[in-house]
Amino acid sequence: MTAPTFPASTVLGYPRIGPRRELKRALESYWDGRSTRDDLEGVARRLRAETWRRLDKLGLGALPSNTFSLYDQVLDTAVLLGAVPDRFLTAADPYFAMARGADGIAPLRMTKWFDTNYHYIVPEIGPDTVFRLDARKPLSEVREARELGLETRPVLLGPVTFLLLSQGAPGSPAGFSPLDRLHDVLDVYEQLLAALAGEGVAWVQLDEPALVMDRTEAELDAVKAAYDRLGALSARPALFVASYFGDLGGALPVLAGTPVEAIGLDLVRGGVPRLAELADKVVVAGVVSGRDVWRTDQDRALAGLRAVREQAAQVVVGTSCSLLHVPYDVELEPDLDPAVRRRLAFAEQKVAEVVELAGRLAASPAVGSGDEATPAVAAVTDTPSVKSRSPYVVRAAAQAERLRLPVLPVTTIGSFPQTGELREARAALTAGDLDEAAYDELVRAEIARVVALQERLGLDVLVHGEPERNDMVQYFAEHLDGFAVTRNGWVQSYGSRCTRPPILHGDVRRPGPITVRWIRYAQSLTDKPVKGMLTGPVTIVAWSFVRDDLPLRDVVFQVADAIAEEVHDLEAAGAAVIQVDEPALRELMPLRAPEQKAYLEWAVAGYRRATSGAADRTQIHTHLCYSDADQILTAIDGLDADVTTIESARSGARILGEPAIGGFERGLGPGVYDIHSPRVPGVDEIEDGLRAALRALPAGRVWVNPDCGLKTRTYAQVEAALTNVVTAARRLRDPG
Ligand code: GLN
Ligand code: ZN
């Protein structure tokens, strides 16, 4: 078929939570039974209309539709294909039951969307899954936009990525993989394309981000089979296959060899390809980053666009990925330092950049020099030599001497329940309705309560409870130079959950001690050791928007140096135990294998830089959230913390079954209390978990703790659960 022309500019997707988080509020109100599904749909419809009108007003050429979602686009795709597992069919609202569970029905799993902080719902596909088209959502969005006088391009997850992101349904035979069902899924995509063609849709976008990861020959064959087949359909919209989050590598020639009319490339992370097969394709060139908050270097972008233009039938200016991962609008940030603000572009500004670049490209001569200089990222500094602490055995002896802990010491991960009173006080402090001294008094009272509770329950290493922290990253960002925090810079993490990442825009320095006074106060209330509690450099960087004029590694090292100063001051204030959390250690992991090893090396070096100044007699703890740590066990080992606490309650302490754990030489605290659930674990069940730990590790190395921080639980739950945790530990210590 001859492709209809593609307008000169587009974006791959747009935020949907609402500039004021309207969708979040509407969802939570519906879930709580305070409003109806119709009310929710009304809010959703308004948000979609506002987005389309706004994109149109900004002058964007091609508008996407079906990028809105009530929860998640992968879940939407499962529904579109009819892949709803039977257990959800009886739920009052199967869609949200899949996402969140419903009385007694376990939800689908949720996991990270590539290397972003967005999380998607993992579809379950088995050999018997029945696929049946339910095209209501994409069709109704096309119609809704038309009512506003706007034509749109429906955005769908492509069949290969959909299946690669799915997991085998429970009970699938060994060796089954969801991709085995490709041809059945393609039947449904064919019907869908026919339905969209019938609706008069000119272009459809099929997202295949899984193709920027390492793929096997068989998977590339699946790509070819899929797009040869969809391309061969007689009545269909033109096909635009979008890739993002990296370079297509070997998948590009495969895709370019199929009849698809347009291919989307992430030119922020990937290079301009040289490929003869692109000569008859439209290339949507993603030159405006959807992954950061910085203004685009227009000259550099233009150079890339012109280089693509020389090879392709047409070049369209686009974003590197959906703008889902950036906040809405810099204009909503009146308090930002103007010097920082000038450098920023959120979704709205990025759309304007795309439009402007399309104008500049059209006005620029057809044959460019092609070799405009691209500004180089500042030179990488050498890996610092990490000062080494003494070997673990030496440290362990010094710490045992100083701390005199019982075997199976009981501790927690750091936070205690955040009361509504404290949250309100913090809001009042920000609003200027409460003075600093009164706020500090409240925080101190909360610390005193948390310390008293832990003493009463009989914990061995106490925490102060983190009442002064809104968030484990934002709190440090607010106290370090080089960071800005936003008022409305929310980004969807999953469902109704949003985060407001700080913006790391300059050199990071610690103007003064951050946590020392709180820890010192807590320690003054008890003879038991109180843990200093810090967030690690990789996690601070992973959960922020980070400057792009320095290699990420160097940024992590700067943050590490600031944390090292805090470690030093905590030690000087008498802290005998200091925990440096790295729950996000795995989050910056590059998507392709060759880069992963280098990443883990410098990430570990960053952590060591933050902690290796500690004296042998200071016990360094770290905390990581996930239980499937196998992939990074060697990295965890490399952190060289004296004690590592880890999530494992949900997997029945599965990690302890890993042979690699046997070789883990230092203290380990596998979580025995699943803090994600309101359920209070019984003594026997905790004891079972600990026995499993004792089978894998010598008693002297096992710690007893919950899976993660207690922030989201209530005091009643925490008190009951920790009582049982202490009882179980005591029974095992003294089996008399
Ligand atoms: N110390 C933090 C807390 O307890 C750790 C949180 C985390 O692992 N995400 O809340
Ligand atoms: Zn955790």
From TrEMBL:
<dbReference type="Pfam" id="PF01717">
    <property type="entry name" value="Meth_synt_2"/>
</dbReference>
<feature type="binding site">
    <location>
        <position position="625"/>
    </location>
    <ligand>
        <name>Zn(2+)</name>
    </ligand>
</feature>
<feature type="binding site">
    <location>
        <begin position="413"/>
        <end position="415"/>
    </location>
    <ligand>
        <name>L-methionine</name>
    </ligand>
</feature>
<dbReference type="InterPro" id="IPR038071">
    <property type="entry name" value="UROD/MetE-like_sf"/>
</dbReference>
<dbReference type="Pfam" id="PF08267">
    <property type="entry name" value="Meth_synt_1"/>
</dbReference>
<feature type="domain" description="Cobalamin-independent methionine synthase MetE N-terminal">
    <location>
        <begin position="9"/>
        <end position="312"/>
    </location>
</feature>
<dbReference type="InterPro" id="IPR002629">
    <property type="entry name" value="Met_Synth_C/arc"/>
</dbReference>
<keyword id="KW-0028">Amino-acid biosynthesis</keyword>
<comment type="function">
    <text>Catalyzes the transfer of a methyl group from 5-methyltetrahydrofolate to homocysteine resulting in methionine formation.</text>
</comment>
<comment type="pathway">
    <text>Amino-acid biosynthesis; L-methionine biosynthesis via de novo pathway; L-methionine from L-homocysteine (MetE route): step 1/1.</text>
</comment>
<keyword id="KW-0808">Transferase</keyword>
<feature type="binding site">
    <location>
        <position position="112"/>
    </location>
    <ligand>
        <name>5-methyltetrahydropteroyltri-L-glutamate</name>
    </ligand>
</feature>
<keyword id="KW-0862">Zinc</keyword>
<feature type="binding site">
    <location>
        <begin position="497"/>
        <end position="498"/>
    </location>
    <ligand>
        <name>5-methyltetrahydropteroyltri-L-glutamate</name>
    </ligand>
</feature>
<feature type="binding site">
    <location>
        <position position="466"/>
    </location>
    <ligand>
        <name>L-methionine</name>
    </ligand>
</feature>
<feature type="binding site">
    <location>
        <position position="581"/>
    </location>
    <ligand>
        <name>L-homocysteine</name>
    </ligand>
</feature>
<dbReference type="GO" id="GO:0003871">
    <property type="term" value="F:5-methyltetrahydropteroyltriglutamate-homocysteine S-methyltransferase activity"/>
</dbReference>
<keyword id="KW-0479">Metal-binding</keyword>
<feature type="binding site">
    <location>
        <position position="708"/>
    </location>
    <ligand>
        <name>Zn(2+)</name>
    </ligand>
</feature>
<feature type="binding site">
    <location>
        <position position="647"/>
    </location>
    <ligand>
        <name>Zn(2+)</name>
    </ligand>
</feature>
<feature type="binding site">
    <location>
        <position position="623"/>
    </location>
    <ligand>
        <name>Zn(2+)</name>
    </ligand>
</feature>
<keyword id="KW-0489">Methyltransferase</keyword>
<comment type="similarity">
    <text>Belongs to the vitamin-B12 independent methionine synthase family.</text>
</comment>
<feature type="domain" description="Cobalamin-independent methionine synthase MetE C-terminal/archaeal">
    <location>
        <begin position="408"/>
        <end position="730"/>
    </location>
</feature>
<feature type="binding site">
    <location>
        <position position="581"/>
    </location>
    <ligand>
        <name>L-methionine</name>
    </ligand>
</feature>
<feature type="binding site">
    <location>
        <position position="623"/>
    </location>
    <ligand>
        <name>Zn(2+) 1</name>
    </ligand>
</feature>
<feature type="binding site">
    <location>
        <position position="625"/>
    </location>
    <ligand>
        <name>Zn(2+) 1</name>
    </ligand>
</feature>
<keyword id="KW-0486">Methionine biosynthesis</keyword>
<feature type="binding site">
    <location>
        <position position="708"/>
    </location>
    <ligand>
        <name>Zn(2+) 1</name>
    </ligand>
</feature>
<dbReference type="GO" id="GO:0008270">
    <property type="term" value="F:zinc ion binding"/>
</dbReference>
<feature type="active site" description="Proton donor">
    <location>
        <position position="676"/>
    </location>
</feature>
<dbReference type="InterPro" id="IPR013215">
    <property type="entry name" value="Cbl-indep_Met_Synth_N"/>
</dbReference>
<dbReference type="InterPro" id="IPR006276">
    <property type="entry name" value="Cobalamin-indep_Met_synthase"/>
</dbReference>
<dbReference type="GO" id="GO:0009086">
    <property type="term" value="P:methionine biosynthetic process"/>
</dbReference>
<feature type="binding site">
    <location>
        <position position="587"/>
    </location>
    <ligand>
        <name>5-methyltetrahydropteroyltri-L-glutamate</name>
    </ligand>
</feature>
<feature type="binding site">
    <location>
        <position position="466"/>
    </location>
    <ligand>
        <name>L-homocysteine</name>
    </ligand>
</feature>
<feature type="binding site">
    <location>
        <position position="117"/>
    </location>
    <ligand>
        <name>5-methyltetrahydropteroyltri-L-glutamate</name>
    </ligand>
</feature>
<feature type="binding site">
    <location>
        <position position="543"/>
    </location>
    <ligand>
        <name>5-methyltetrahydropteroyltri-L-glutamate</name>
    </ligand>
</feature>
<dbReference type="GO" id="GO:0032259">
    <property type="term" value="P:methylation"/>
</dbReference>
<feature type="binding site">
    <location>
        <position position="24"/>
    </location>
    <ligand>
        <name>5-methyltetrahydropteroyltri-L-glutamate</name>
    </ligand>
</feature>
<protein>
    <recommendedName>
        <fullName>5-methyltetrahydropteroyltriglutamate--homocysteine methyltransferase</fullName>
        <ecNumber>2.1.1.14</ecNumber>
    </recommendedName>
</protein>
<feature type="binding site">
    <location>
        <begin position="21"/>
        <end position="24"/>
    </location>
    <ligand>
        <name>5-methyltetrahydropteroyltri-L-glutamate</name>
    </ligand>
</feature>
